[in-house]
Structures are given as structure tokens and as C-alpha cells.
Amino acid sequence: MKTAPNPAAPARPPAVPPGPPGAGAAGGAAARTGRPLSRRIAEQARAYAFLLGGLVCFALFSWYPAVRAVVIAFQKYTPGSDPQWVGTANFTRVLHDPEFGAAWRNTLVFTLFALLLGFAVPFVTALVLNELRHWKAFFRVVVYLPVMIPPVVSALLWKWFYDPGAGLANEVLRFAHLPTSNWSNGADTALVSLVIVATWANMGGTVLIYLAALQGIPGELYEAAEIDGAGLLQRVRHVTIPQTRFIILMLMLLQIIATMQVFTEPFVITGGGPESATVTVLYLIYKYAFLYNDFGGACALSVMLLVLLSAFSALYLRLTRSGEDT
Amino acid sequence: MRPSGPRGTRTLISPHTLGRPRGRAVYWTVFCGVVLLFALAFLFPVYWMVSGAMKSPDEVTRTPPTLVPESWHTAGYTDAWDLMQLPAHLWNTVEQAAGAWLLQIVFCTAAAYALSKLRPAFGRIVLGGILATLMVPAQALVVPKYLTVADLPVLHTSLLNDPLAIWLPAVANAFNLYLLKRFFDQIPRDVLEAAEIDGAGKLRSLVSIVLPMSRPVLGVVSIFALVAVWQDFLWPLMVFSDTDKQPISVALVQLSQNIPLTVLIASMVIASVPMVVMFLVFQRHIIAGISAGSTKG
């Protein structure tokens, strides 16, 4: 949810440099073919000198680890000693871990809840905010405020709210004469409690992006619908949603990709408990690497997560590209 | 297009409906409801945190809780500052964020400039490789990335417990690099060619022509870079096992186990202040930046 605050931007195809038609590009091409070889080599050397720092970092910390994840997934790997090839042993071991099923189930349920709650709430909030004609800046600042609070602080804050003794959450329930809940300490309620935290902390970005999309809807469409006798909900259904269908889909995919990588909330609030009710896939990867010292197993899990998430990312990029063309 | 003043472009509800007495009553009821709801949902937790840290250790755990502290103590804040080594952890965070920002500005702008204006051979392949990393969610690769940082290829040194472990991976930020490249693409080549005729080298034209023209995008990239480091948790948790080197986010979780509640809450407030202040100062730019990406589609 936080990785890409500007979701539509990265996927746009590179813009063609504007300027006088032909002048830049054609002049450049002529220069390229007309220059002597030594000059061209010097130019290339200079271009790569500018690229070097960035390329080294991408190679070391993006491309190499991606390859390495796949390699280590088939190795017994202990830092400091030579790795041994073990075939698919890491995968079978991980698949037989009872926490494996729990982690995937939790992650999927978390994502599902995050879509229901984490998407419906900001959607309705943006719809309502778009109708308000006063204090616009105030609402935008306030809804985005939690995003700026470090996630660790949000998690600790809600851990305190959920505290069975001095927690505010149960105090609110008691005040409303409702039965109290175990919140993050109960096996049934723990996941939902974490989704509430994640929604509170991250909805600001979704609200702002969706608000901007709502402002792009031509007013005439609403007028026409109203003349045709469409009520409020019908206008939402037949004008608002179809007009913003594309951005809704984008935000949903981004939400899925982000929530499938959830780690901070379960790590800080529940520690994966009670009884692995909130262990997520990323948490399990962390456990394999840093508690069990089993880097092969961690990489096998990473590869599985990677394949699934890359599929979603590819879908996202495809959609943004096709959205650009229309 | 942006509605200005009380009446703007037509939205879901028509201005006509809003003009009628009943419409106006409903509007103000909804308005007050939303203000109340926002205050309760987003401002109250912040108030609860700030005021909770000022209660006495006995009052903060009392049920039912007090809405306003009976007496205001600053001991929570001063204890957090003095005993929890918060200044050291805050300084670590500042150091990590500043270095990541600086290296990103230097190396990402240089690379984006090269890809946009210098026509390197295989430029399209390089750009494709960089954009491909956008598809690979970062968190799924933390373990192999950790192993790489723990034992760098060729050099065989470890960057663990070193701010370089934050700084260097931060440069591999395809999102920021692409943002910069797209902005540079829009700078007409003629401007740069004119400078070259005047004798300016490539570096000179980057520093004295391209960068001054790119202030808005540099601002956005800077904010993203700073926020990303300040908010990150899993990566610094992995690479800083040495307590003295940990940034505030990691230190908070480690400390939260065995310190008095008021001191912990005070530490949480202190950890939030820098980003919240930065947000309030630059809120207009930040909100505009987030909204801008979505106007298409």
C-alpha cells in the first residue's frame, strides 16, 4: 500500500520527447551515423559512466537477488560454507510444514478482508468527501495523517488499543453496552483486528487517488442521469462506478499486491499468534531465515510468493498499458 | 477543473438539490457527521497517544480510562528521551534517510539523464531491466537481498550493521528513476544542444540546466525517498542486529517489551513527529503529488 503512492505513473510508456517535430530525433540520428568511431565510443563511455552507479546498485540489489532466490531455493545454504544442491527438498519440506497452509490461508483471508474493508471504506469515504464543498483541505490532510505515522508506531498504538485490560477498543464497546472482544488476542478475531489497523493506517492514499479520479467525471453525465430519473444510488452505479472502473481495478490490484506482503502488523501486534492465526507468508519467510536459519526453505517460499505476486503485477502493468491506449 | 469555492463543478448531488432548504439541511448534517467521524477515527487516536504519554503510570492503565489526564506529566517524554537512547536512534534514522536520499538523487538522476538524453547502447534493454523490477514486489526478495548484503559478491565484505546496507539498495529504486526519466524526456533536446554549443559538457548541462528545470520532480522523489526509509521496518530489522545502529522503528519494537507504558507511548510520539511535521509543512505538495498520478484513466 505504501510502496507506490502514485500507482498510475510507473506503467506509462516512455513519453516521446516533445519539441519541434523531427528536429531533435532526426538531428540526433544524423549525428550518430556521421561521427567517427572513436567519437562514438567516447560518447558511449560517457553515457555508461553516468549509468554506472545506478546499474551497479540494480545489479547487486535487484537483479542478482532475484536470480539467487531461485538458485538457493534448490540448495542447502548456510552462510559461510559451500552450498549443496538438494533438488526440490526445500519445497517438499516447506510444503509439509503445518504452518505453510496456515500462512497462505491467513494471507489470502487477510487480502480478502483488506479488499472488502480496506477498499469499501476508502471508496465510500472518497465518494462522500467529493460531495462536501467545505474544509476540503482539512479532510485530505486528516485522512492522510495516519499514512505519515511510521507503521511500527501505528501497530504499537493499536496493540495498546486492543489490550484486554487498559485497551480503548473494549472500553468503547463497554460504553456502547456491547459485548467485549478479544481483538488481536482471540484466534477468531485476530486477523480482522489486523485488517482494521492496516485499513486505518493506509486508507489515506486510496482515498486521495480515488478522489482525484472522481473529480475527472464530467458533470453532464450526472445531469443526464438525473434527467432520466436516476436516483442517488443509481447514479453511483451507472455513472460513478463505470467512469472510474479503471482506477478502481488499479487500486484493487495494488491493494492485493501490498497486502500479500503484510509483515509489520502481525510481527508487532500478535507475533503471529495466537497459535499461528496471524502468521503470513512473509512472516513465515522471516521465520525460516532468522529463527530456523533455513535459508533454502526461506528462498523456496520466496519463489512461490514471487511467482504469485509477479502474476498480479504483470496484470497490473498490462491493464495500465491498455488503459493508456484507450 | 478543480472546483473552487463553495460551488464548483457538478458532482453526484446537483447544486439545485443542495440549494433547497431540505438539501441544505441534509448537507450540513452529513458534513458535521463526517467532521465528527474523521476527528474520532484519525485525530482522536493521535490525541490519545500524545495525552496518554502525559498521564501518570498509574492513570494510563486505569479502567475506565480518563479522557483528559488528571495531571500533566512530562516524565514520560523526558524518560523516553534520556533513558531509551532515542536521540541516538533518531540520529541513526536521520543518517540512514539522508544518505539514501543523497545517493538516490546523485545516482538515479545521473542514470535517468543518461537513459533519457545520452542514448547509451542497449539503453532500451537496461530500461526494461529496471522497469521489470517494478513487477517484482520488493518484500518477496528480502532474504536473498539480505544474503547479498551479508556477503557482497566479488568484494566479499559484509554491509550488515552499516548504513550502507540502507543507502545502496535504496538507489535501486525503479519507481523514482522512472519518474525522473519521464520528466527529463520532456526537456527539449534543443535546450541542451544550445548549451553544448556554448561549450558545456554533459555533466555541466545536467547540473546547471536539467536539474534546475526539474525541481518539482526532485521534490517528489526526495519526499518519497525520505518517507520510504523512515517508515521501513522489515529491512532494517534484518540488517541491523546491533542495537546501537538500529533506526527508531526497529528500536521501538525491541524496547516495547520491557519499558513502562507511558515511556513507550512517549517514544512512539517522538518517533512520529519528524514525518508528521514534514507532512504538515509540505502537505499541499504531497497531496497534489499523490493525486496527480490518478487523473488519467
From TrEMBL, chain A:
Location of the protein in the cell: Cell membrane
Residue ranges, annotated region (Disordered): 1-30
Keywords, ordered alphabetically: Cell membrane, Membrane, Transmembrane, Transmembrane helix, Transport
InterPro entries reported for this sequence: ABC_transporter_permease, MetI-like, MetI-like_sf
Top-level lineage group: Bacteria
An example Gene Ontology CC term for this record: plasma membrane
Residue ranges of every copy of the ABC transmembrane type-1 domain listed in the record: 104-316
Range of residues in the leader sequence: none
Residue stretches spanning the membrane: 45-64, 108-129, 141-161, 190-213, 246-264, 295-317
One BP annotation, GO: transmembrane transport
Pro residues bias spans: 7-21
Membrane topology listed for this record: Multi-pass membrane protein
Chief location: membrane
Membership in a protein family: Belongs to the binding-protein-dependent transport system permease family.
UniProt name for this protein: Sugar ABC transporter permease
Source taxonomy: Bacteria, Bacillati, Actinomycetota, Actinomycetes, Kitasatosporales
From TrEMBL, chain B:
Pfam families cross-referenced by the UniProt entry: BPD_transp_1 (PF00528)
Family: Belongs to the binding-protein-dependent transport system permease family.
Membrane topology per record: Multi-pass membrane protein
Compartment(s): Cell membrane
Lineage: Bacteria, Bacillati, Actinomycetota, Actinomycetes, Kitasatosporales
Residues spanning the membrane: 25-48, 98-115, 122-144, 164-180, 217-239, 259-282
GO annotations of cellular component type: plasma membrane
Gene3D superfamilies: MetI-like (1.10.3720.10)
Predominant location: membrane
Domain ABC transmembrane type-1: 90-282
Alphabetical list of PROSITE patterns matching this protein: ABC_TM1 (PS50928)
Keywords, sorted A to Z: Cell membrane, Membrane, Transmembrane, Transmembrane helix, Transport
Any one GO BP annotation for this protein: transmembrane transport
Signal peptide range: none
Protein name: Sugar ABC transporter permease
Top-level taxon: Bacteria
